[in-house]
Amino acid sequence: MTNSDLDAVVAAVRERIDPDEEERRALADAAAELESRVHDALADLPVDADVLQVGSTARGTWLSGDRDIDLFVRFPEDLTREELQEYGLAVGHAVLPDGHEEYAEHPYVKGDYDGFDVDLVPCYDVPTAPDIRSAVDRTPFHNAYLTERLDDDLAADVRVFKRFLKGIGAYGSDLRTEGFSGYLAELLILEYGGFEPLLRAAADWNPQVEFDPEDHGTRTFSDPLVVIDPTDPERNVAAVCSAENVARLQHYARSLLADPREDLFFLPDPPALDADGVRAHLERRGTTPVAIVFDAPDLVDDQLYPQLRKSLDGVADGLDRRGFDVFRTETFAADDAVLFVELSVAERPAVERHDGPPVHVRQHAEGFYGAYADGEDHYGPFLDGDRYVVERDREFTSATAFLTSESLFDVALGKHVESTLREDGYEVLVADEVAALADTFGSELGRYFDPRP
Q1: Quick one: which residues bind ATP (predicted)?
Q2: Structure confidence at residue 386 (pLDDT)
Q3: Domains of the chain (ranges plus CATH)?
């Protein structure tokens, strides 16, 4: 592979993703009109405040087709939280009269203007990022830091890197994706000075990988990728990024460097499966899937998915400890939520072996022997080598019996997941019955049975 091969691919990708002059002009015009409306709305309030465009469209790192305009209204830091919300929403509704309220750490207004998706977010005008009173207060500092350092060439490489991350499925800092945020992508391009140097470095990363652009970090982190926020010495910008997505970037960086090709930037998802497709995979694999299906708790994804993953881990651990060997797991959600566990072993004998201590460990050995010596519901105690053993009745001989019992609630479940299962009930699908999930989750099952790095 020569540099020219990769350069040619990057040039072709840029032809597809760089906003053209007309698109840039339309966005600039819309942003200017919106800022003018904000100033008019602020004139009616008893406070001094200003407005700042932030995000990728403010820094020239947005991709063609992106239609997001993020406007932050900075209010004096001596306002109460209630006043911030009141004034912020008043400005938001004045600027976007058809908009609606959404909630991050505090409410903001989201709406449409001239075909653009607009977020109008109130924040505090604090002197430094460590002085923040709400999480969104950092964003203007991020914007200022990057605007000072990203020239046109670096901004172009950020766009290419973002498209690459999207293509390989590693873009997005939401807790469903656990990938790379736009801000993190920009910082990594700055750190390495471009897309190709970043690829070559990532191909050889040996996590934990740590960067501190301003050499001011005051905390240690255990995450696989650590990028200390240049505006906040106590924050890891990459905290959300999972080990799997760090590894995914490494895999595809090596693949692109070894064989530069445009398709890695636009990888399609595997085809969705229908019920027959699911059954065909199960017949080939010879495994037994079980799925707990229930009404998805009414939570935003960033609250829901951590609870689903915690619950999935708890269920998988409960099955493993009872001898039902877990092969692979996944969770997905729409109106329903699914905890999907594929088992190598779904049924077990009526008895299980229980090893006691070696006979020479007298106190423990005598206690074990005494506990089982007089019972009739087990075999033993007997000697196997130098230790006592009993064979006792197994509590659950099938995975289904465990999943439909009260013992399910002994495993670690997410708070809202547990309450939903208890109060609203759930369904357990076993073996071919999981094919019914294809009607709603055909795409997710397609990705599950056709996994890629």
Answers
A1: 56, 59, 142, 162, 171
A2: 95
A3: 17-134 (3.30.460.10), 152-265 (1.10.1410.30), 275-347+397-449 (3.30.70.590), 351-393 (no CATH)
